[in-house]
Amino acid sequence: MESWITDNHVVQKFVDWCVGKGTSLETCKQYGAYLAKPLDLNNKWSRLAWKAYFKFMNREDLWREIKTKRSGVDLYVPSDEEVKRALTEACSASEALCWVYKLLIYSGLRLSEVCKLLREQQEDRWIKADGFYKYPLSWRRGSKQVFYCYTLEKPPLISISDKWVSNWAAKNGVLNPKYIRKWFSTKMLQLGVSEEIVNFVQGRIPQSILAKHYLKFSVLADEAYKKYLEYYSS
Predict the structure, then answer these.
(1) What pLDDT score does 1 carry?
(2) Most buried of 123, 139, 150, 213 (most Cβ within 10 A)?
(3) Are both 12 and 106 inside the same structural domain?
(4) Torsional class of 138: left (φ above 0), alpha (ψ -120 to 50), beta (otherwise)
(5) Which of 74, 79, 100, 78 lies closest to 89 in space, CA to CA?
(6) Strand 144-151 relative to strand 133-141: parallel, antiparallel, unpaired?
(7) What CA–CA distance (Å, rounded) separates 84 from 101?
(8) CB of 107 within 8 A of CB of 96?
(9) In terms of domains, do 94 and 23 share one?
(10) pLDDT average per 10 residues of sequence, the chain (234 residues)
(11) pTM higher than 0.85 for the full model?
(12) Domain containing 23: what range?
């Protein structure tokens, strides 16, 4: 067997099989791209691509040889300088990426939520608060709800996908967007904001609790966000 796949017809058959198994077309195509390169056991995507390919080929013996690393708790939190550097690199690359990273830093939301907001926002729904803006979302994620996007600046309408941003960051060695969310929550806690309010701002409050305490959380979150902006602007 070759150490990588050179037959485009084989790769296309694999991609079709992969999609048929319920994986997204974008992910299957990414797997196909990794099959054009030798297996790299230190690269998560390479391991996943080759494991999927061996399953496609009914080569369980080779499939079992590739060990996938179990996900542990990721305790990494970037420094202020790393976050600033990521924003600088994003803004140097394009206006769209600049706004994505700005909103990640301003809001503490997930990358997928930031990109969805940029694509779907409506001008008349923005709320001007005391020194910042809020956008009502009311998006559900499992049993939890994201109620607002808090931001210092109001962004333009931008068509962009979270997967494209993640791929750009990975290819260019820019800080993974997921770590900005962790940086935001850590910073809020360091500023004395309660974990409950941080969870409200970042959309981690269960709907059952939110329904009972929305007004209290909303008022306290507005005050907490002012603290965050004071720190960020200093």
Answers:
(1) 40
(2) 150
(3) no
(4) left
(5) 100
(6) antiparallel
(7) 10
(8) no
(9) no
(10) 64 89 82 84 83 87 73 78 96 98 97 95 96 92 84 97 92 91 96 95 84 89 96 88
(11) no
(12) 8-65
CATH number at residue 211: 1.10.443.10
Q: Residue 127 has which token pair?
A: 């709320």
> Hey, what are 51's tokens?
């494991």
11, 67, 217 from 39: Cα distances, Å: 15, 12, 49
DSSP H/E element including 151? strand 144-151
On the 0-12 / 13-18 / 19+ scale of CB atoms within 10 A, 220 is middle
Report if residue 74 sits inside a domain. Answer: no
Token digits for 178?
């997921």
Residues 53 and 158 in one domain: no
What's the number of domains the chain is made of? 2
At residue 69, the pLDDT reads: 58
Q: Is residue 196 part of a domain?
A: yes
Nearest residue to 166 (alpha-carbon basis) of 88, 220, 229, 111: 111
Number of other residues whose CB lies within 10 A of the CB of residue 109: 26
Residues 108 and 200 in one domain: yes
Spatial strand order of the sheet with 133-141 comes to: 127-128, 133-141, 144-151, 205-206
CA 160, 165, 171, 173 dihedral sign is positive
pLDDT score of 2: 45
The answer to whether 39 and 47 are in contact (CB under 8 A) is: yes
